[in-house]
Design brief:
This protein is mainly β. It has five domains: about 40 residues, no CATH class; about 150 residues; about 60 residues; about 100 residues, Immunoglobulin-like (Sandwich); about 160 residues, Immunoglobulin-like (Sandwich), CATH 2.60.40. It is about 10% helix and about 40% strand. The chain contains six helices and 42 strands. The strands form nine sheets. Strands 6, 7, 8, 9, 15, 16, 17, 18 and 19 form a nine-stranded antiparallel β-sheet that branches. Strands 10, 11, 12, 13, 14, 20 and 21 form a seven-stranded antiparallel β-sheet that branches. Strands 32-42-41-36-37-38 form a six-stranded mixed β-sheet, with no helix packed on it. Strand 29 and strand 30 form a beta hairpin. Helix 1 runs antiparallel to helix 3 and helix 3 runs antiparallel to helix 4. The longest helix has 17 residues. The termini are far apart.
Length: about 625
């Protein structure tokens, strides 16, 4: 064999003047072996042992990278796995660096059966930082951090943000863990001395350590089904993924094996549409792995791959609610509904949750991403009264009216129930020549069972009796109190004939803006049975008996309390009790007067009070 002596100048670790023999291996300085195989061909550089690379000082150092893009994970040894549910996972822990942990939250986006790494949770000692899409970083308490390209340091931990994404760094015992997230891809680089073992574990270190640690939604591990992309789209995606073995990526193939990246790309893009720059994210992930592992930039691929000319974090400046994901559509970032969340609403053709009804109010909540899917701008919506728009919070728009502000709600009542009805409507510019948004008119209503005052009796020796009543959605108390003075301050203890007694009828828990109490009739009888004679009328049709000048009715039908007075009496030839029976009615004050008409004029029908319920109240005193 002819041996050719070559003089090499500064190739890898050899210094100028060192000799290399063609066909034989020659040791470089500290961490490289150079094989000279044929003249004119660049030397093949054999790197340091597994998970070690040459550093800038030409020494071997521990350098390991794991990559998470979409649903795929490539561990530090190049093994690939796919997350197929919507659970949270511990992505990296260390048996030596105990105070640092990386977790990932997986959620679906455009397809129910394909999950994506949505948020990255970093735990440093007891502090929590959450890396989100668009370069946003929040503390565990929800505080949004303001970051720049200059590192913000927190003892052994730092955070920095550029247009390309957020980088967090943690240093301890000579090791540094660098965590990079751009909204699509998470890349974790661990560097340190070869004399120590960082003790890495979980998915980043070994894909077989994939264990869900916490659910974020009910049944997060429930399998979901959805349509894959067509074969033509899949074939095109495979061709795009194979570019990782072509120029300009070939210069990196010897540093980072492209096969797991290509497989991750194909498996995902044959099931998920080529939208939101996801295809480009797989190429960018491999290019960045080359840079952090071999310190070489891979450029010149973005234009031919139809990727943005400059890599930027996905969804910058956009914050979507938990039921939404960020989508790139026609050059703009929009919040769209997650398909698993939206499916039951779409199935029933709904835009939100059922109406919430209470005694004095009604509200309905619409889901903004469902509105967006229908090309409806929530800012144009309002109730019948245009001064009653919705309130936006956490991706939901809530419309509310109550007894203080009806927002032009329609109120209808029957003997047993009252119905409140309003409409969510859209408004347009009356001067607009054309409109491009569907007109909205969504009716919602609440029907409430009217409260019923239950009958009960008491002797006058007990000056006050009260009882809690629950009827439908109402929860209130009715009380009857007897007094001896007009100011109704002195409670009755004993009564004598011809003594004036003031009887107060009061309710609490009913809205006096909606309901008034009307004492409709009162009469006395010798028997406790109100149907038996003899009877003596004190109040008829809400008005005092004009033939008994001791009877006075005050505040009847004005609010939820009123009172009347009369002089105590007994029936002739009777030494027994006298029973007073009163019929009390509840009246709706909406658009009507509840005041009894005690004149002799005939009332017009449309002016009559609207009564909702009635009950008997019986009072007795011993003669």
């Amino acid at each position: 064999m002819i041996r050719l002596l070559l003089l090499l100048s500064a190739v890898g670790g050899l210094q100028a003047g060192n000799a290399a023999i063609l066909g034989e291996d020659t040791k470089g300085s500290n961490c490289e072996t150079i094989s000279c195989n044929s003249p004119g061909i660049s030397p093949v550089i054999k790197n340091c042992p597994t998970n070690e690379k040459c550093n800038a000082n030409n020494n071997c150092e521990y350098r390991a990278t794991c990559t998470f893009t979409g649903p795929t994970a490539i561990d530090i040894s190049g093994k690939l796995t796919t997350v197929k549910d919507r659970c949270n996972y511990i992505l990296l822990e260390s048996t030596k660096l105990l105070s640092f942990k990386v977790e990932g939250e997986y959620r679906e986006r455009r397809r129910k059966h394909i999950s994506h790494l949505e948020n990255v949770k970093l735990t440093v000692d007891t502090k929590v930082y959450i890396l989100k899409q668009g370069g946003r970083v929040e503390k565990g308490d929800g505080q949004l951090l303001t970051l720049t390209a200059t590192e913000t340091k927190f003892d052994s931990f730092s955070l920095a943000k550029t247009d390309a994404g957020v980088t967090a760094k943690y240093s301890k015992d000579g090791f540094e863990i660098s965590v990079y997230f751009d909204g699509h891809t998470l890349q974790i680089l661990t560097t340190g001395p070869t004399t120590k073992d960082p003790g890495l574990k979980k998915i980043c270190a070994d894909i077989n350590e994939r264990v869900a640690v916490r659910t974020i939604v009910d049944s997060c591990d429930k399998a979901q089904t959805d349509a894959d992309v067509t074969k033509d789209v899949c074939d095109k995606a495979k061709t795009s993924c194979d570019v990782l073995k072509s120029t300009p990526f070939t210069s990196c193939n010897g540093v980072v094996k492209p096969d797991p990246y290509i497989k991750a790309c194909k498996e995902t893009m044959c099931k998920y549409p080529a939208e939101d720059n996801l295809m480009c994210s797989f190429l960018e992930a491999y290019a960045r792995a080359c840079k952090v592992q071999g310190r070489q930039d891979v450029t010149g691929f973005r234009s031919s791959a139809s990727c943005p000319t400059t890599h930027k974090a996905f969804c910058p400046g956009k914050s979507c609610a938990s039921q939404e994901f960020c989508a790139l559509e026609s050059g703009d970032f929009k919040c769209r509904c997650r398909p698993v969340f939206a499916a039951p609403f779409i199935k029933d053709n709904l835009l939100g949750d059922p109406t919430v009804c209470s005694a004095n109010s009604a509200s309905v909540t619409l889901i903004n991403c469902l509105l967006t899917d229908k090309n409806i701008d929530y800012t144009t919506l309002h109730l019948k009264d245009k001064k009653c728009p919705g309130t936006f919070k956490d991706g939901n728009v809530t419309f509310t009216f109550n007894s203080d502000s009806l927002c032009d709600a329609e109120v209808k009542a029957t003997d047993t129930e009252v119905t409140y009805k309003n409409n969510i409507m859209s408004s347009t510019d009356p001067n607009a020549a054309i409109i491009r948004q569907d007109q909205v008119n969504i009716e919602f209503k609440c029907t409430q069972t009217q409260p019923a005052i239950q009958s009960f009796s008491f002797k006058l020796q007990r000056s006050s009796v009260s009882k809690e009543v629950k009827s439908g959605s109402y929860d209130y108390t009715v009380s009857i109190e007897a007094f001896t003075d007009a100011a109704r301050l002195q409670a009755v203890t004993e009564v004598v004939l011809n003594q004036k007694v003031y009887v107060n009828v009061k309710t609490t828990g009913l809205d006096d803006k909606v309901i008034a109490v009307v004492i409709d009739s009162c009469y006395a009888s010798k028997d406790s049975d109100p149907t038996k004679d003899p009877k003596y009328q004190l109040i008829t049709a809400g008005c005092a008996n004009k033939e008994d000048n001791t009877v006075t009715v005050v505040g009847n039908g004005v609010s939820t309390s009123s009172y009347f007075s009369f002089n105590v009496f007994q029936f002739p030839n009777s030494n027994g009790d006298v029973h007073l029976h009163c019929k009390v009615k509840l009246c709706s004050t909406q658009g009507k007067s509840c005041l009894p008409d005690c004149t002799k004029q005939r009332r017009r029908r449309n002016a009559m009070p609207m009564y909702l319920d009635e009950a008997f109240i019986t009072m007795a005193w011993n003669s």
